[in-house]
Amino acid sequence: MLKTLDVVCAILERDGKILLAQRPAHADQPGMWEFAGGKVESGETQSEALIRELREELGIDVQPTRYVASHQREVSGRVIALHAWHVAHVVGTPVAYYHSQLVWCSPQEALTYDLAPADIPLLEAFILLPAATPADWC
C-alpha cells in the first residue's frame, strides 16, 4: 500500500489575479507550476499547516479564507491528498524562497501554464468558488 501525504496549498488572490509558483529543479515535477503550500504535520490543522508553509516558502502571513477542494493523485510512489484553500488576505509581499519563480495571473491564464497535474482540478474548482465551503468547515 502506498503512503498517503496530506498536503495543503493556497490559491492566493490579489486584485483578481492568483499566484503561481514554479517548482525548483531539485523537486519532484521540476519546472511545473503549482499553488504554494506543503505537508500537514502531525497535530496540525490544514489552516495551521498552510499558515506555517507560506511563512517558510513565501515569507508572508495569511489567513485562509475558504476551503476550495481536494484532489488525490499518485506522485513519485506516494498518494498525495492535496487540499486547496482560497487566501484573499496576505500580509507582506511573496518572495520565492523555495520556488524558482512566482507569477501573478488570472485564473484563466493559469490554465495556460504547465501546471502540476494535481493542481488543475483545484484551479477548476476555484473558478467555480461561489459554491465553495467556508473556511471553518475543516
TrEMBL record:
Biological-process GO terms, alphabetical: DNA repair
Keyword Hydrolase attached: yes
Keywords: Hydrolase, Magnesium
Cofactor: Mg(2+)
Domain Nudix hydrolase: 2-128
Listed SUPFAM superfamilies: Nudix
Highest taxon, organism lineage: Bacteria
InterPro entries recorded: MutT-like, Nudix_hydrolase, NUDIX_hydrolase-like_dom_sf, NUDIX_hydrolase_CS, NUDIX_hydrolase_dom
GO MF entry, a single one: 8-oxo-GDP phosphatase activity
Family: Belongs to the Nudix hydrolase family.
Protein name: Pyrimidine (Deoxy)nucleoside triphosphate diphosphatase
